[in-house]
Design goal:
By secondary structure, the protein is an alpha/beta fold. The chain has five helices and five strands.
């Protein structure tokens, strides 16, 4: 039985591969988006338990996507964990993220964050 569905919005292909492997090993169902795929549409169609999203995507802003989710009546309750190498934790939490992971993070930190968020 799955621990929950994680939707990955991350533009680093290597990171996506590593996260998919780790999360599947830990018992999560994982759906990874392409670098510039429409995150909002994916959230609507996939109905994830948590969205794990990079703050800085190729041609999209994770913060803008987060804000759009929080301002949407049908998606405002989606749990979102943001990640970045930049010092933007307070900004992410202020805008409504359920959690934040500073890159690079340890696998155990991610699993702990997901278990607290889902």
């Amino acid at each position: 039985m799955s621990k929950g569905k994680v939707l990955l919005a991350e533009d680093d292909v290597t990171m996506v591969s590593l996260l998919q492997t780790l999360l599947k090993m830990e018992g999560y169902e994982v759906v990874a988006l392409q670098a510039d795929e429409d995150v909002i549409s994916a959230v609507k169609s996939e109905q994830p338990d948590v969205l794990l999203m990079d703050v800085f995507l190729n041609h999209q802003s994770g913060l803008d996507i987060l804000e759009e989710l929080r301002n949407s009546a049908d998606m405002d309750n989606v749990r979102v964990v943001m990640s970045s190498g930049a010092s933007v934790k307070e900004e992410c939490l202020r805008r409504g993220a359920n959690g934040f992971l500073a890159k690079p993070y340890m696998p155990d930190d991610l699993i702990k964050m997901l278990s607290q968020t889902i």
